[in-house]
Structure formats: C-alpha cells, structure tokens
Amino acid sequence: MEMRSFIEKVEMNEHLLYEEMIEVSRLMFNETTDLQHISDFLLALSKKGETASEIAALASVMKSFSLKIDSPKGDYMDNCGTGGDNLNSFNISTTAAFVLAGEGASIAKHGNRKITSAAGSTDVLEALGIPSDINTEASMDLLVREGLTFLYAPTIHPKLKRIGFVRRQIGKATIFNLIGPLTNPVSLKSQYTGISRPGYTMEYASVLQMLGRERAIVVCGARGMDEASLAGQNEFALVDKGDLIPFTLTPEDVGLTSAPISAIRGGNAQENATIMKTVLQGERSPYFDTVIFNAGIGFFTNGMVSNIPEGIKLATDSILSGKALEKLEAVIAFTRSARKREVVQ
C-alpha cells in the first residue's frame, strides 16, 4: 500500500493492524516519502487515537533503525515521559533522574530537544553544562560510573531527522511523543513514564508489557500532565510482570500539599536549569514536592522501596543529604572531560 491509502484508512477512523502499522512506519522512515504525507498521516492518527498495537509496531520499527549500542549489563530504568501536555512545567523527570541516581538507582534516560515544550531535557542539560554530543561509548561509560546517563534521541535515531522536522511543523503531540519512552536503546528492566492522555494509562501500560518490561508505572497527572501532579487526582497503571493494575493518587494521599499547575511553571532552558538547581539544593517549594513525588514513584517502580510514601522519603533524603546535587556535579564533570578527550582525538 502507498502512504495515501493508509492516510485515507485512518481518516475513516479505522485502526491499522499491527502488520499495516509496520508497513506505514517503514514508509515514514523512508527518505523518499513525501513530508506532507507523513504530516497528514500523523495528524489523522492523532485525531483517530492511537491503539496499543499501532504504538508497539512503530516502536519496533524505530528501534530496528536505531544506532546499535553495546550497553553494559545491569538493572536499568528510564523515567522519561511522552511530553505534549502543553502545560509549560519545568523539567520534572530530568530533575528526578538525579534524585533517583543519587540513591543508587541506575537510570538510562532517553530525551530530546524541545518539540512541544519551551525546553526539552536536552536543552536544559546543555544549559547545566552537560553536552548532548558525547559519543555513545562515553555515554555508556558514564552509566557504569555514575549510574546515570542521558541518551539524545536524534543521535540514537538518526532516521528521525526528517520526521523531527515534520513534528516541529505540526507543533503538537503526535504518536512520536508516545513512542519516545519506548525506544531506549538500553535494555530496561523497569520504567516510569508519563502520558498526557487521561483514560489511556492502561492501554499504554499494555504496550510496555508487550515490550517486555518486568515492572513499570504509567501516570497521567491532573489536568493531563505527563508527570504525577500536585494539582489533583493522578491516574496510574502498574505493570507487575503479568498483571496490569490501575490506581489513583492525590498528593494528600502521600503526605504532600496540593498546588496548582501554575506553581511549577517553567521557562526557557536557562530558567529551567536554575529551577533544577534550587530543587537539588533543597529549597522547599511546589517544584521540590513535584520532584520528590515523581522520584518517589520511580523508586517504587524499580523496587527499591515497597510503597510510594517510602519512595518519597528516600527522594527527600537524596536531595537533603546532597547526594542528588553531587550526582549532577559528577555528570557535568564527566561529560566535560569526555568532550575534551573527543576534541583532542
């Protein structure tokens, strides 16, 4: 089938079979496919609503085209979200990654530049002094040494370049936002991820289950935030081996104070880097509470604690002991040194 046929089928509100989505995904990654056709397909799919099998098929094709990485053996976790909630929050999961690694969790965080936000994880990391363009060997060395690394999606997925252009032109969330957390080149044992789609957590959790995650949590926060939010009730789905378990939580349920979304507004990369530093330096605020909420759920996801309140306590300790900030400083030092070595070579 040609791209136009798939567009027409989706525009008629028909779901694609797994095999059909495999075919159309390969067409999207084909350099000769018309960019307008890719845009039309992504918009039609977004309007129809993506199914678990469509998401899993695209993730499978995208991983098949990705850079092959010789990742070290270990019990790794990713905590990146899908983005696309248009709520202009600061970089919560990137901040939480340092909190998690500060207490010994091994985090391989997949990320990108801004597409639907004011500052993506890569933008804010660069503002902190962590370059995105160190080679993959150095990136894996960082993972072994510090238990934390950041994988820049365009480096890992070179075929995304044309599609990235289309996504920026569209300017809103598409299936590729849903795909980001699913295409980490490091083999993940556990995963904590957020989506900006209420009522979709169980569907997305079933994709993670299909992809072999032993344990995972999917969150859709209050007001459709792609993180656990202080602004109200949060919807979750837990993947625990063969089980899919839905649950909900408010901040009050875990001993935190509610706060509106406006209390965690972010800005550009430099402004968000400043917010991150104030959180990691222990300044108490809704920014701080949002980070410990999400890092606490991360600790529960990877099994380091037996419940979320324990996870929040561990996250608080990671920050107030200085471990999370030390982790940030260690990653900055390592990546700067790696960058210098690459320049010399």
From TrEMBL:
InterPro entries: Anthranilate_Pribosyl_Tfrase, Glycosyl_Trfase_fam3, Glycosyl_Trfase_fam3_N_dom, Glycosyl_Trfase_fam3_N_dom_sf, Nuc_phospho_transferase. Its cofactor is Mg(2+). One of its GO terms (molecular function) is magnesium ion binding. It is an enzyme of class 2 (transferase). Binds 2 magnesium ions per monomer. It catalyses: N-(5-phospho-beta-D-ribosyl)anthranilate + diphosphate = 5-phospho-alpha-D-ribose 1-diphosphate + anthranilate. Residues 74-325 form the Glycosyl transferase family domain. Mg(2+) 2 binds at D226, E227. Pathway: Amino-acid biosynthesis; L-tryptophan biosynthesis; L-tryptophan from chorismate: step 2/5. 5-phospho-alpha-D-ribose 1-diphosphate binds at residues 81, 84-85, 89, 91-94, 109-117, 121. GO terms for cellular component: cytosol. Anthranilate 2 binds at R167. Its EC number is 2.4.2.18. Belongs to the anthranilate phosphoribosyltransferase family. Catalyzes the transfer of the phosphoribosyl group of 5-phosphorylribose-1-pyrophosphate (PRPP) to anthranilate to yield N-(5'-phosphoribosyl)-anthranilate (PRA). This is Anthranilate phosphoribosyltransferase.
